[in-house]
Amino acid sequence: MNPRLRHILFSLAVLVWSAALIYFYASGRITKYLAPDFRPIAFAGGLGLAVMGMFNLLTSGQRADCLHDHGGGDAHDHEAGDIHPLAAFLLMVLPIGLSVAWTKDEYSPAALARKGLYDSPSQMGNAFMSTVMPPLTREMIEQGHRKTDDGYHQFNLMELFFATGDREMQSLIDGMKVETEGRWIDEKTRNPNGTRKRLYRLFITCCAADSRAIPIVLEFNGPPPELPENGWAKVAGTMRFPLEEGVLQPVLVCDRADSAEPPYEESFLRR
Amino acid sequence: MSPDSQQDFALAFLSILFEGAPFILLGTLISGFIDIYLPAGTMERFLPKRRNLAIVMSGLLGAVFPVCECAVVPVIRRLVKKGLPVSCGITYMLAAPIVNPITALSTWKAFQGQGAAMMTCSRMLLGFLIAVSVGLVVSRLSLANVLREKILRSLNEPEKSDGHHHCGHNHHHDHQDGCCDHKTHDHDCDHNHDAAGNDRLVAAFRSALKDFVDVGVYFAIGVSITALFNTGIAPGAAWLDTLAGNQVAAPAALMTLAFILSLCSTSDAFIAATLDKFSWGAKLAFLTFGPMMDVKLLFLYQTVMRKRFIAALALALFLVIGCISTFWQHLIVQAK
Asked: What CATH topology corresponds to A109-269?
């Protein structure tokens, strides 16, 4: 292939990556993909790629000399690649192009199931739990959780979920009236009467690919209210930890459930 | 692919790509500038005269001259031809992609919340020890068992003259485009072209661009495969999950995956960190074996080494890294 055309193709491929990084950062959509400390790095990377792509594009026809010596038999080509330039261009551009077109910034229920949506708390790794759980005491529970006007303590979903694996916490929270928020989704296991739903949030360590679903079960006295599937909901009720099929489950017996605005940081983060 | 699978693939693909791309850029910019600006002979000056000490030092040279595995093979090919001991060259070749600051930084960032410091240190240490061990073994082998015949011949023969004056003079010769085209006249002269300094900057950026595309292609393929497994779309995802719990099969499976994916060491940690069903030890095996032996390297190594030596090296690396990673995992679990 003509070297100038090769430079142009490669520069365009780099500029496509750069545009994706900068667009997702500038639009704020990057919050669904990366933990906070990776976001500025991604933006800087996008800018760096833009500089490299533009520089190479603008100098694509220019002669350039490396000015150093090469041993005998050395092919001395700093630019020869492993793959045909057109194939390299397509391999770089097609997957990212399709992904940008396909993404809805969230996982489907099937992927969420794979990421632990229907796992019981005991199936989550200990190392994972130890990195995210603050040391809690009864005093901290009383002081650290604001009470709503109608008498519910506001908890984040992760505390309720992990309390299942912590006997002390579990005994403190069992029977407590709590309010929490998360995404509203169908309960597919142990729901013979159709009176249950599931509430979850994602926990991101570095990026969405390593995220885990953190769920609790919602129990209603009758049919659950009609709320948008996978939409955000605020629920309040009494927290219980029943033993179901040999496994402790975090179950919130709900008094109320309403749609809610998504929080700015939708996922739980490492810190 | 169903619409649900498409959205799952897209989210996982973009998140890993956004995470890893800046680190690939950093690595390729540095290796591009080293490629163009580093005079030949600079690395040899860092090495002590004593053979064993020189091998050990070669294992640390990546800290000063950080290059990934794609860039290191051509460099070694050139350096070996110019007199760098083969044992030192192979040690540097195996260690530099792992024992370098960019790989350390990317590993540390990727494993935040998953024992980042332990994984980074273990990876550096294991990579260094394996590379030095291979170097020490190679130093006791006959070069005929290690190097390709063509390379071996070029070491034994005095360099041929091609009619150029190799004395640092000014000369003009055929520059077609890009870097000067010496393909038709191999020589060993200290160039002193009339070209302006910014030619070199253009050459450095072009080298970085080429490296980025080379690495980016493999990264895009690797991220695509990882995203398919990560979201359960790939047919073998469930089978791979069953291997994750097996102490012996898990490192073997991830080393095989590393071999096939041919990822760059500057970005492979971002893939490994998402393999959440696998043990820490299996991930360490993935991160150590991949930069030393993969499909892409198999072809690159053949430009320098004999096929039989490469096969023996691959087998030895697979067994030794697998065993050490499993043992290391066991020790850490015991300590906890």
From this structure: OB fold (Dihydrolipoamide Acetyltransferase, E2P) (2.40.50)
The three-state secondary structure class of B330 is helix
Backbone CA torsion sign across A118, A120, A121, A124: negative
The rounded distance, in Å, linking the Cα atoms of B329 and B327 is: 5
User: A120: alpha, beta or left, given left = phi > 0 and alpha = psi -120 to 50?
Assistant: beta
Chain B interface includes A245 (CB < 8 A): no
Find the largest Cα–Cα distance for chain B: 68
Residues contacting residue A177 through CB under 8 Å, at least 6 positions apart: A151, A152, A153, A236, A237, A238, A239
Residues B2, B179: Cα–Cα separation, whole Å:
46
* DSSP string across B147-203: B-HHHHHHHHSPPPP-S---SS--------SBS---TTS--------S--HHHHHHH
Q: Which residues of chain B have pLDDT under 70?
A: 35, 40-41, 43, 68, 70-71, 74-75, 78, 81-82, 156-198, 300, 336
Whether residue B257 contacts residue B286, with contact meaning beta carbons closer than 8 Å, is answered with: yes
- Round to the nearest angstrom and report the end-to-end CA distance of chain B: 43
For residue B254, the distance in angstroms to the closest alpha carbon of chain A comes to: 17
Torsion-angle region of B262 (φ positive above 0: left; ψ -120 to 50: alpha; else: beta)? left
pLDDT in tens, A221-270: 989 999 998 899 999 999 998 888 778 889 999 999 999 988 877 665 54
Q: Around Cβ B295, how many Cβ atoms within 10 Å? A: 12
- CB of B224 within 8 Å of a chain A CB? The answer is yes
Domain boundaries, chain B: 3-160+195-335
Which residues of chain B does A80 touch, with a Cβ-Cβ cutoff of 8 Å? 210
Domain boundaries, chain A: 3-64+81-101, 109-269
Closest CA to B266 of B17, B27, B61: B27
Instruction: Please report which helix (H) or strand (E) contains residue B226, including its range.
Output: helix B197-230
Residue A132 half-sphere exposure toward CB, CA atoms < 13 A: 25
| Both structure tokens of B195 | 């070209």
- Of B23, B110, B208, which has the smallest distance from its Cβ to A52's Cβ? B208
